[in-house]
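README: folding subset

This subset contains proteins for which both the sequence and a predicted structure token string are available. Records are stored as plain text. Below is the entry for JmjC domain-containing protein (281 residues), shown exactly as it appears on disk.
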Amino acid sequence: MEELEALWEEVRELSLGTSTHIERLDLPPSPVEFLRNFVTPNKPCIICNAMEHWPALSLWPSDDYLCQALGSTEVSVHLTPNGRADSLVPHPTDPSSLCFASAHVQRMPFPDAFHLISDPDKNENLVAYAQQQNDCFRTEYGALASDCEAHIDWATEALGYLPEAVNLWIGNNLSETAFHKDHYENLYAVVNGEKHFLLLPPTDVHRLYICPYPAAQYSYCQDTGNFSLNLEDPVRYVPWCSINPYLPQGRDKTEMDEFPLFFNGPKPFECTVKAGEILYL
Ligand SMILES: O=C(O)CCC(=O)C(=O)O
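--- output ---
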């Protein structure tokens, strides 16, 4: 085990160095620089001044603009009691174990969704997050297409293909996406607000302790304003990361003992991506 750990560390240091600081580029890289310095070594970076020409940067901070542009378009909104969709929570019938909880997904006209998301104080115990994925920007939000570039040319040239999916997330300060593993090259452009990321390189995947958890789904009752959490029947297991990098109070010691490769290993890369910046991950 010790030899394996040394190997993982060596691989990480070779491609990423020892710092967990994420490099910021003042200007977009050329395709060759992007490929050589970031894509090949699996190294994240933040690219500034790469989307100045997107109308979205000046238009989207206006609630009125978004609501008018999308009109009564129906969008999918993910509802949870805490802003954490697709995350591990206590199992509904055996709280000493965990299950994988998905959000209650509701379709509604964009202006309703927007108000639910942007007025969290009005909806105590209900956090709404537009996080549909599945290429939702090019389907549900097609009316906003001309506000952004259809693809990012230096990335397309470096990677050799156009984006397979383009997604849009609209959330508030409670919106949180659980630690997870993606299989894709990602460019995450922040148009308004900011997003905080914790990142691990692909060679650290063993430190996520991916295990099967029974799938459950939140169901939201509009009349009572309450959620129930129901296990899927028949039972289905979802492989999910066991680590919560932000340890909930009171579970620290147990989790640290249970997942030593994560908690005793190198810290994740950490960054805050601001409006107008693109994170490559
Ligand atoms: O913005 C989010 O909440 C999720 C982003 C995400 O899952 C990702 O970039 O892989």
